[in-house]
Amino acid sequence: MRKVIAGIIAATLLFSLYGCAQEEEQAPAAADKIVIWTWDETFNVKAAKLAAKEYKRTHKDIQIVVETKEREEILADTKRLLASEMYEELPDVIMIEDYDIQDVLAQYENEFVELTNQVDYGKYTDYKSRLCSKDDRFYGIPFDSGTTALFYRLDILEKAGYTESDMQNLTWDRYIEIGEDVYRKLGIPMLTLDPTDSPLLRLIMQSGGHWYVDENNQADIADNMYLLEGLRTYQQLLEKNIGTSVNGWNEFISAFQNGSVASVISGGWIISSIKSAADQSGLWRVAPIPVYEGEYPTVAASNVGGSAWYVLKRGKHPQAAVDFLVEMFENDADFMNELIAEIGVIPPVKDLSGYSNYFAKDMFFGGQQVTKLLTDMASNIVTVNYGSKTYEIEAIVEDEFNNYLEQDDLSECLANIQMKAETVVRE
């Protein structure tokens, strides 16, 4: 009896194995799997996932995986995998911030798929196109503009006696005066300041047409009056309790989402994070950034951040990744129009008239035409050379400025930064 049962089991196993073999032979080829690395769940990550969902409607054989990583982590992991030749672990697409791309292309240009003949770079704003290129070769698909604005809680400011008109045409001196008064009356600072990240200095410098380096990629620190004014403003914000210190992205986001600060000065990409606090709908407004007047004037427009999509040659499916990015982020105007409404993206193109949501009134911001307002500001942004060492130089600025706060000698501070920055740009 046992032999009979054993024979039945053996036959069953043999049949099962044969069936599995038949299934393997008849199974379709594995679908192309596109892996994307990006950051910010409410903005870039959401855009990539929406694009993947839309793309799969007509490309059912494509699998698209969107993985969330921090900006710094994406660069570090990509460089590590390339250096160690662990190509099988590379993604197909990475997002790179505009400040980083020139340094990345200088080191790894041959690792990216060239898109010169597959993307119409003439339709993008000049400064965005230039950032994606090296020696007249183009590699990225520009995604968003980092057009900077002053986003503020009208309800908080009204409690301190201010109106929407009070927040228009501001100078930095006036913004500081309002901030002092708001803090005195309500105990609420105007904005956050992160000692490890200085977008405030960047936006002030660019609003004056300067950067940490000049057009020839030489350190421009010691005589950079806009950096000087930015550091002085930063110091006033701290000393007068107008700015409150935070550490990192999560604390930055939490501060304005929970009403701990009355305003945010940042790129337009921050809109998605502001609007994620749905209970604050109608309480927010947007205005141009403050300016300096006098001997070193600035314009009420600047840029913070902004990014583009790039395809790695050594990813598993580079051509499938290019096809996906070009179709969704380059050619599909309807999808980009949807993203204006979904996440508040400001497409970095010269002509937005074909996007109906460009004109839409945003009730979260009291019915303001936010996209149009930001785009109008963008036309006044001064193009500067970001060079390839923005964050390296900024780390030096932060260290030396902290020393300055104790020693109170700004001229020596700038001289020290200049000397150290010269070493960095030569590397």
Layout of secondary structure:
Layout: H1 2-26, E1 33-38, H2 44-55, E2 63-68, H3 71-83, E3 93-97, H4 98-108, H5 126-131, E4 133-134, E5 137-138, E6 140-144, E7 148-153, H6 154-159, H7 172-186, E8 191-193, H8 199-207, H9 225-239, E9 243-245, H10 249-257, E10 263-267, H11 271-275, E11 284-287, E12 307-311, H12 318-331, H13 333-343, H14 370-378, H15 390-407, H16 410-426
Parallel strand pairs: 1-2, 1-3, 8-9
Antiparallel strand pairs: 3-12, 4-5, 6-12, 7-10, 7-11
Q: CA-to-CA gap between the ends?
A: 81 Å
What structural class do the secondary elements suggest? Answer: alpha/beta
Helix content: 40-55%
* Principal-axes shape call: globular
Largest sheet: 5 strands, mixed
Helices and strands, in N-to-C order? HEHEHEHHEEEEHHEHHEHEHEEHHHHH
Strand order of the largest sheet: 2-1-3-12-6
Number of strands: 12
Strand percentage: 5-15%
Number of distinct helices: 16
Poorly predicted ranges (pLDDT <50, ≥5 residues)? 1-30
Taking Cα atoms only, what radius of gyration do you get, to the nearest Å? 25 Å
Q: pLDDT average, as an integer?
A: 91
